[in-house]
């Protein structure tokens, strides 16, 4: 999927449907760690122009990474865009921003510029194609690019999820606009 860059099958999709599916798939992993995943209800009614399977894959990867980073009894938040250290995010150029944040240790400053590079990982490595292959965030980045969106990552100096910080990923994707009649 990463090397080939499958062209997305763009269609109007309610973001709430994608988020519900992501929560269903992430729930077993979150239960094992006794972690909570909180969702901003304002995401429910947002419509995107996207390939729902590809965006679900990207969001699921980000949520599972956030649950891992938050650790036992950790907290993960999925919410609409807002300010991020080092710049602003939100609605721009018809893009809608989704924030995935956790109350984990954050992202090491030396690793931050490399996290979307293929095969870069801070996790203990398994097999070259295994769960810690370092392809997850590279695939997420590629999916977002193919949709004409952007993804950014950083650390928070206090969030609704963790007053002391944590990591945040900002996924900006095209909104669906009704065709002009």
Q: How is the largest sheet built, in terms of strand order?
A: 2-4-7-9-8
Distance between the termini: 36 Å
Strand content: 25-35%
Name the helix and strand elements from N-terminus to C-terminus, one letter apiece: EHEEHEEEEHEE
* Number of extended strands: 9
- The secondary-structure class comes to alpha+beta
Please state the average pLDDT score.
Answer: 82
**What count of helical segments does DSSP give?**
3
Low-confidence stretches: 82-92, 126-130
Shape: globular
Largest beta sheet, briefly? 5 strands, mixed
Give the proportion of residues in helices: 25-40%
**Rg estimate, integer Å:** 16 Å
Can you describe this structure?
By secondary structure, the protein is of the alpha+beta class. 27% of the residues lie in helices and 25% in strands. The strands form three sheets. Strands 2-4-7-9-8 form a five-stranded mixed β-sheet. Strands 1-3 form a two-stranded antiparallel sheet. β5 and β6 form a beta hairpin. 37% of the residues are buried. Residues 82-92 and 126-130 have low confidence and may be disordered.
